User: Which sequence fits this backbone?
């Protein structure tokens, strides 16, 4: 059974390995280059230093990441875990679509064993791919994370990529056992993967743990937000109510300072203070919560994946 | 010894549709049984229930004395099954398909498989997807036979084959039966394919069994009677009338005879199996019409 599972999954495994190899070829040389630059230009000295010189040096450094780095920061590579997860569901879905399950299930092995062997090979491959993906980008991101913290490329680092891939294969299998049309199930599963990732990234992640917030006046300095994830920051009143860009106060004080209304900058401080808006309100997740939020998001996607996989198993055991 | 296949009030529903209902039959070991009926009669469902691909929604099924689902680990190695579409892994070579058989079946007879494949002239290195329909059927049959089952279930094995491939396939089945103790159940909607090979018959229509028995007995018991119309009543009291047709003064009855038919008023003719099967399937249709009318 192991041989059969492997033989059926060979193409998908090679595609996955090829995809990861391609990422490696793109990111490893660039990663080495960036790590070297980090040392040569003594970027470490500018970590947590808010001087103009350091801003310039760091900006310059980030730009030398070039096209390869823009691939990562553009977010498109978030699709890769979805592609890999869905691809590794294909051998099983094709078996269902082509009716070859009826061949396998009428040999001498039980359906339970067939599911266990095929499932564990697919899931093992997915986890290995997820680990490879995470290791590559966690390594690549090291110098940038030292400058800004781990939050910017949250979905590429740590343990969450494994859960994303599990989630994708769970979706494809869960939909596929119902639908039994491989291509359609792949498309729908991939769409659902993208939608779920966008929802979590843009809305849910910052709410997994209630973020911290702080409000401080014109002459105070706020909390240390080194390596923190700043969710919102802007001019507010004493109670911490933020003023939106098109509120009267902002419009007025922006005009008074002579520059456009641009979130806090270019506002006339005296004018702001006069209108009781001289405060700054900040909502953020401190760096210390990185692993807590990683674990929660891992549990979320991994948990849904387990439910989907259990459903697929149950359907397969009852299918004819 | 338990029967090769035994069902008690077996039924299977898909939603509100009954694919098979109240099916009770027994197929003795060593027999070759034809499972005949029109498309949608429940043949595939019955065979899938027997091999444990499907679970019954009513009644019970036992193969070789075992429950095909609950005792799957014990029953599966002893039952060979060939699904209608002859499912094989299209991207595998014939050689790899043999390996599948070897990996998945502890009782696999590698030598027999090789001899069969060589005998038919199947190219080992060719991919399944480039084989002809007949060759594919032969690969699938090789897999089912080399696992050395005691009971072999073939679902419409020749439906998709051309006449020559049909002959060759049925020849292979016959050879397998001759070689060793093997019970075979094979379904078809075309009786001519099976008549040469089978010694028992099960007729299914609309999910129900119409007729079960040995072909010899079935042929012996069915008679075509032609005689006076006004005496038709008497005959139907003695024998089961399967089909009747009336002319002005003369009546033709196809009966399942209860003992000997001997009556000077009636001309008695023998029937061949095909006529009997068609008449019995027609009986089902007639009953349905009555049911609708009443």
Assistant:
């Amino acid at each position: 059974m192991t041989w059969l599972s492997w033989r059926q999954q060979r193409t998908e495994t090679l595609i996955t390995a090829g995809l990861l190899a391609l990422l490696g070829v793109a990111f490893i040389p660039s990663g080495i280059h960036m790590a070297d630059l980090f040392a040569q230009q003594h970027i470490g000295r500018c970590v947590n230093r808010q001087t103009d010189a350091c801003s310039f040096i760091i900006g310059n450094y980030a730009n030398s990441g070039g096209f390869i780095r823009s691939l990562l920061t553009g977010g498109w590579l978030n699709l890769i875990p979805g592609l890999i997860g869905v691809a590794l569901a294909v051998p099983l879905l094709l078996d269902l679509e082509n009716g070859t399950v009826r061949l396998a299930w009428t040999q001498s092995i039980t359906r339970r064993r067939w599911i266990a062997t095929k499932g564990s090979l697919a899931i093992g491959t997915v986890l290995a791919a997820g680990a490879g993906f995470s290791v590559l980008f966690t390594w690549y991101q090291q110098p940038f994370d030292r400058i800004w913290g781990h939050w910017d490329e949250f979905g590429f680092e740590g343990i969450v990529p494994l859960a994303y891939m599990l989630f994708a294969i769970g979706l494809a299998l869960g939909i596929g056992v119902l639908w039994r049309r491989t291509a359609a199930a792949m498309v729908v599963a991939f769409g659902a993967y993208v939608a779920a990732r966008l929802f979590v990234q843009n809305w849910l992640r910052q709410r997994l743990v209630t973020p911290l917030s702080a409000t401080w006046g014109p002459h105070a300095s706020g909390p240390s937000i080194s390596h923190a994830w700043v969710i919102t920051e802007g001019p507010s009143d004493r109670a911490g109510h933020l003023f939106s860009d098109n509120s009267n106060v902002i419009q007025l004080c922006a005009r008074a300072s002579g520059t456009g209304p641009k979130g806090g900058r270019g506002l006339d401080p005296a004018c702001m203070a006069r209108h009781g808006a001289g405060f700054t309100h900040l909502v953020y997740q401190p760096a210390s919560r990185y692993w807590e939020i990683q674990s929660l998001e891992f549990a979320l996607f991994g948990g849904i994946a387990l439910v989907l996989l259990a459903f697929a198993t149950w359907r397969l055991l009852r299918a004819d | 010894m338990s029967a090769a296949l035994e069902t008690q009030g077996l039924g299977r529903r898909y939603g509100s549709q009954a694919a098979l209902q109240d099916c009770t039959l027994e197929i003795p070991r060593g027999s070759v049984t034809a499972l005949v009926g029109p498309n949608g009669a429940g043949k595939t469902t019955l065979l899938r229930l027997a091999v444990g691909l499907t679970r019954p929604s009513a009644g019970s099924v036992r193969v070789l004395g075992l429950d095909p689902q609950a005792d799957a680990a014990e029953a599966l190695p002893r039952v060979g099954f060939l699904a209608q579409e002859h499912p094989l892994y299209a991207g595998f070579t014939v050689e790899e398909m043999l390996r599948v058989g070897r990996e998945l079946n502890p009782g696999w007879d590698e030598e027999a498989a090789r001899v069969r494949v060589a005998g038919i002239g199947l190219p080992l290195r060719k991919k399944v997807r480039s084989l002809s329909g007949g060759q594919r059927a032969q690969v699938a049959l090789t897999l089912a036979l080399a696992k050395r089952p005691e009971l072999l279930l073939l679902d419409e094995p020749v439906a998709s084959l051309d006449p020559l491939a049909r002959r060759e396939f049925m020849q292979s089945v016959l050879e397998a039966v001759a070689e060793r103790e093997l019970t075979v159940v094979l379904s078809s909607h075309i009786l001519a394919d099976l008549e040469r090979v089978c010694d028992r018959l099960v007729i299914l229509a609309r999910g129900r069994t119409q007729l079960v028995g040995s072909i010899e007995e079935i042929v012996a018991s069915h008679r075509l009677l032609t005689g006076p119309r006004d005496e038709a009543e008497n005959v139907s009291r003695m024998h089961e009338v399967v089909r009747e047709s009336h002319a002005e003064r003369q009546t033709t009855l196809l009966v399942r005879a209860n003992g000997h038919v001997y009556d000077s008023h009636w001309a008695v003719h023998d029937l061949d199996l095909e006529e009997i099967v068609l008449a019995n399937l027609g009986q089902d249709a007639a009953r349905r019409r009555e049911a609708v009318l009443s």
Notes: Chain B has a mean pLDDT of 90. The radius of gyration of chain B is 21 Å.
